[in-house]
C-alpha cells in the first residue's frame, strides 16, 4: 500500500497542482493573507498538533523511517558475523558500474519513448475533439476515457496477455485485416516492449485527456472566435492559441508521465516477467527482482539502485514543480 | 452556429470510434467470459460466441476463495478509505486554517512523501511492518498507506478556498476548532471527499505488489492476488479467468459510473473560485 496511493491517485495531484488557473493567483493569495491575519493572534498550537499528529506519526513510521533505513543500508556493509561497517558511497559505485542496471535504465527510457508521446498526442486530439462536441456527447466521452484509469494493472495485464495470443488472440485477428501477423508478441524480444507499451498507453491516456481538457476550458472562447474570424484553421488555432496557453499543463503532464513511465513495473512483472531475454526488464522490475535475493549484499545493492533512481526522478520532479508553481507550491 | 448534417455524422462517428476503441479490452474481457472452453481460443477467430454461456460466471462465483477475496478486499478498501479521509482531512484543515509553531517544517515533512517513489522504501517498509508483527494481518494493508501527501494536499487546497466569514463568526461565538471543522467544513467537503475517497478505494482495490509481499495467508488473499495467482496456476482456463477479471474490475468501474459527475468535475475542483 505504501506505493499505491502516491501513484494511483494521479487525478488528485494533477488537479491540484496543474489546474489552478494562472489568473486566480492574486485572488487566492489575498484570501490567504487574510487567513493569516486572523490566525496570527490566535495561535492554535495544541489543536493543530493533535490534528496533524496521526498523519505525522503514520508518515514517520511508514515513509520517513523506511527512507532513512534505506539510506543506512546503502552506506553500511551488513554482514551476519560482524558489526556493520560504514562504506560510504561504495554501493553507489557498484550500481553505477553494473551493466544490468544501465540496461534496465535503457529499457525504461525506451518505454517512456514509446508511451509518453503517444499518450500526449492521443490525449490532446481527444481533448480537442471533446471540446467541440455538445454537452451530452462530451459527458459520455469524458466518462468513457476515464474508465481505463480505474482498471488495475493486474487485470489490464491479464487481458492484454489474452489479447496478444498468437492463436485465437484479438490483436492478431485485427492486424490480420491489413495482412500482418500472426505475431507471438510477448515472446519476441523485438516486439515485447512495444506490446507492453500499448496497455501502458491505454491505462494513462484517459486521465491525461481530462486534465488537458480542464486546461482547455480555462482558455477564453473569445480567443478562438477572434482567430476564426481571421480565418485561422484548426492547426493554426492549436499552434498559436491552445499550446502556448497550456504550456504549464502540458509540461506537468509530460513530466509526470515520464516519471511514471520510468517507474513502470507491474505490467512487465505480470505480462513477461522482464523477458524475453530481459527485453522488458524496466528499472523497478530489475530492483524488485533483486529484492528476492536475501543476501545482505543484494539487499544493499538493490536499495542503492532504488535510491539513485529516487534522487534523479525526485530531483527532476521537484525542480519542475517549483518552476510551474514557483510562488504557489510551498507557502503554508 | 448550425452544424451541417455531414459534420454531425462525422462527429458521431468519431465519438463512436473513441468509445469503441477505449472500451474494447474491457468488452473483450466481458465477452470472452461468456465463451465455453472450446470457443474461447477458437480458430478461425470469432468475436462473439455461438452460444452465450453463463457457466464461467457461475463457476467463479461459486469459488469460495474468489468470494472471500472479493469480500475481504471490499471491506479492507472501505476501512482504508475511511481512515485516509479522517487522517488526511484533519491534517489538511490544520494546514489550511490554523497557525502554529513549526508549521513550515511540518508542512515540508508531510508533503515531501509525494516525491518519494515507492520502490525506494518498499523493502525497508516491509522490514518495518514485519518487525511490528503486522505481516499477514489486514492492518498491514490498511494502516501504512493511509496518510497520503497527495490527498492531504488536495483537501487543503479546497479548504484554503473556503470563505472566511462563517469561520470568523463561529470563532467569535466561541466555537472551538474541532467544532468548526465538524460543523462548517465537513458538510461542505462532500465533493472533495468523493474524489479523494474514490482515489483511496481504487488504490486499495487495485494494489498488488504490497499485498504479495505482506500477505501469504490464503485466508487473507486480496482480489488482485487472486487474479494474478489464477493466471499463473490455471492460466489455460481463459474463459474462467476473463469472467473473474470482469467481476474483479466491476466494483471500480461501477464506482466511476456512480460518481462520474464528481470525478470528472473533480479535475476542475482545485481551480474553482
From TrEMBL, chain A:
It is a multi-pass membrane protein. GO terms for cellular component: plasma membrane. Residues 101-320 form the ABC transmembrane type-1 domain. This is Multiple sugar transport system permease protein/sn-glycerol 3-phosphate transport system permease protein. The chain crosses the membrane at residues 51-72, 111-133, 145-163, 192-217, 238-262, 301-324. One of its GO terms (biological process) is transmembrane transport. PANTHER family: ABC TRANSPORTER PERMEASE PROTEIN (PTHR30193), INNER MEMBRANE ABC TRANSPORTER PERMEASE PROTEIN YCJO (PTHR30193:SF37).
UniProtKB/TrEMBL annotation, chain B:
One of its GO terms (biological process) is transmembrane transport. SUPFAM superfamilies: MetI-like. The keyword Cell membrane applies. Coiled coil: none annotated. Pfam families: BPD_transp_1. Keywords: Cell membrane, Membrane, Transmembrane, Transmembrane helix, Transport. GO terms for cellular component: plasma membrane. It is found in: Cell membrane. InterPro entries: MetI-like, MetI-like_sf. CDD domains: TM_PBP2. Its main location: membrane. The keyword Transport applies. Residues 70-259 form the ABC transmembrane type-1 domain. It comes from the Bacteria. The chain crosses the membrane at residues 12-31, 71-94, 106-129, 135-159, 180-205, 238-259. It is a multi-pass membrane protein. Belongs to the binding-protein-dependent transport system permease family. This is Carbohydrate ABC transporter membrane protein 2, CUT1 family. It comes from Agromyces cerinus subsp. cerinus.
